[in-house]
Amino acid sequence: MSATTTATTTGSAAPLTFPVRPSAAPVAAERRAEILAAPGFGRFFTDHMAVATWTRGTGWHDAAVVPYGPLQLDPAAAVLHYAQEVFEGLKAYRHADGSVWTFRPRANAARMARSARRLALPELGEDAFLEAVTQLVRTDEAWVPSGGESSLYLRPFMVATEAFLGVRAAHEVKFLVIASPAGSYFPGGVKPVSIWLSQNYTRASLGGTGSAKCGGNYAASLVAQEEAGAHGCDQVCFLDAAEQRYVEELGGMNLYFVHDDGSIVTPELTGTILEGITRASIVELAADLGHEVRERRVSIDEWREGVASGRITEVFACGTAAAVTPVGKLVSADGELSHGTGQAGEVTLAIRERLLDIQYGRAEDTHGWLHRLV
Ligand code: PLP
Ligand code: COI
Residue 184 has what pLDDT? Predict the structure, then answer.
């Protein structure tokens, strides 16, 4: 690492704390204001990052919030060769009174622990995960935008740093959290997105890493995303690997189908789909709004026939980065299928509004999902 860290905890029993070593050269306030006025997604980073090191035998130690900067990695670091890596994505939201909150962070911490187990990485406790996020956001609070649907996107991740080319779980690992101010994930705002159906590539198979949030899944999805782009589409949809028949998810979002009787359906978790926290929240929010919610398999034929017959009235995608986004059309080698009027549907918009109202503190948080950071 370019920035040295102070040892805080050497045993696994003591809680991991993240003392702050402030940057001597933070971004100037005027430049920061310029960035926050139009942050885009994932292009700019705050002045600090949280870091911690794990070594076999010692456990987690050397945790701190340090100046943001490049990592120094040995060229033999395991992550560069065998992709032993997992990550998370969550957001900090500024409320109208200036306070800053995050949404279900313990669910992200728990998912990261599950992903880590699958990738043979060490688990970081939920408290340490939350402490890292909290200390980083408190340190870089000035970077949390306000207004519109802006937020500070938080990216916790864990990488195998041990310099060793043998194929086994690394004995040295780093955990980091970086933060990036974010506007809308799709530059078009709430406009319906177009989906390319991938029939050449699958994302995950049973026993694989589909339900883990690991970089390798995204690396494997990029060629399909390129194919989507080449066909003028915003996102790619993957089918199950075994039969190429059941709808799984998009490259970075889960899917929902709204039916003409008001019920809504999302593909069930089969072990190959990412267990989205937005997806799980919508299961509860849609029920609050009076919808019957079902988690079950949805075939690609059901999607096509349902839209064509009017039985499926709306399709939307959901995830932390993109929130709730309407799907406007499905494109594949077999042709194009337009959904609805080309505008966001009523149910999609109601669910979107309910979720964002909770996240931005405009509606009562009846499920106790918000966690105050500042
Ligand atoms: N599916 C994939 C492949 C993702 O990358 C994401 C984004 O994190 C999601 C679904 C949605 O998950 P969440 O709602 O937890 O952000
Ligand atoms: C998220 O929604 O947090 C994601 O991780 C999706 C994508 C940016 C990878």
Answer: 76
